[in-house]
Amino acid sequence: MRKFILLLVLLLSGWDAGLAQDITPYIALIERGQVDSVRAGYEDLAFKYPGSVSIRYLRALIETDATKAVAIYKDILRNHANSEFGAPALMYLGEYYYAQGLFIQSQSILKQLIRKYPNFPRLDFAVNLMLRGEIVAGAVDSARNDLSWIRGIRPDLVIDIPLELKDPQPMHEAALELVELKSEQKAEETPVDIRPANRLGSQSTYQISSHQTPAKFELQCGAFGSDQNANILAGQIRSLGYETSITKKQLAGRTLHVVMAGKFFARDQADTEALNIQNALGIGKPFPVIINP
Question: 210-219: per-residue pLDDT in tens?
Fold first, then answer.
């Protein structure tokens, strides 16, 4: 009888230990939007398995305060970096810093993830986020180098390469320059009276009376495969006082979300504001696009 009781205790202990490491059912509930159900049972789990890294990770997933969640992820990386939760913790930190506009910090975190966990299931998303963060931060050359490095360690990985890192298309650019030249020549024949309006932030805006011709240029500030990334950049540009819009374009079978800013009546005005945006945000210089030839 005593042997039977001892065996039962050992079986139950083994079952409990397994449960402490298996939070897959709870993660599935979170992914289905049933976060409240997980929160309701969390305290019992935390009491039953104190110090469990899996329960700490679960706590970060259901935390509503982003700064507290970040602290938990950092604690996991300090004390349990080699656990199965090390890579997800790095991923969430990289996403958090990106969403805060801290692109350099995000790039550093995501690069750690890629280097240490090259087989992470969401590696494609981590790579795309890192490259776009570098581009928005103006580090296009670094993004190109990192893309080459990633292709070396994971040649099989499907990457949504940002437009800024694609090979240029000389014929297209030459055609664009020709259209712009013709537009500028036409503008010289029909001068437009431009009066400076109130300055907002670092932006020089221009207003025209009702009898004047419509604006001729907008600035293309970026093109992204993800509408989320496009909205982040658009929001940063709006914070400088510029009007923005996002349009969809098809390129080689892909949908790009193109961020446009401002409306200008002369090329030199558009160039000046492009430089202002570049200096303010540290991104690649936006280029003028003709909207009314």
Answer: 445 678 889 9
Can you tell me the distance from the alpha carbon of 169 to that of 181, in angstroms, rounded to the nearest whole number?
A: 19
Are 126 and 91 within 8 A, CB to CB?
yes
Task: Give the model confidence (pLDDT) of 245-284 as tens digits.
Answer: 998 887 667 788 888 999 888 888 888 888 888 877 767 7
Domain chopping of the chain, boundaries: 2-161, 168-290
Distance CA 292, CA 132 (A): 30
226, amino acid identity: S
Kindly list the strands in the beta sheet with 244-251, ordered across the sheet, starting from the edge strand earlier in the chain.
244-251, 254-264, 217-224, 287-290
According to CATH, the topology of domain 2-161 is 1.25.40
**Which DSSP string do the residues of 129-197 spell out, in sequence order?**
HHHHHHHHTT-HHHHHHHHHHHHHH-TT------GGGSPP-HHHHHHHHHHHHHHHHHHHHS----EE-
- DSSP string computed for 190-255: S----EE---BTTB--EE--TTSPPP-EEEEEEEES-HHHHHHHHHHHHTTT--EEEEEEEETTEE
CATH homologous superfamily for the domain 168-290: Sporulation related repeat (3.30.70.1070)
Structure confidence by residue, pLDDT tens digits, 108-128: 899 999 999 999 999 999 998
pTM of the complete model beyond 0.90: no
| Residue 18 confidence (pLDDT) above 80 | no
CB of 16 closer than 8 Å to CB of 48: yes
Q: Identify the helix (H) or strand (E) that includes residue 264.
A: strand 254-264
Tokens of 182: 């013709």
Residue 11 to residue 58: CA distance in whole angstroms: 25
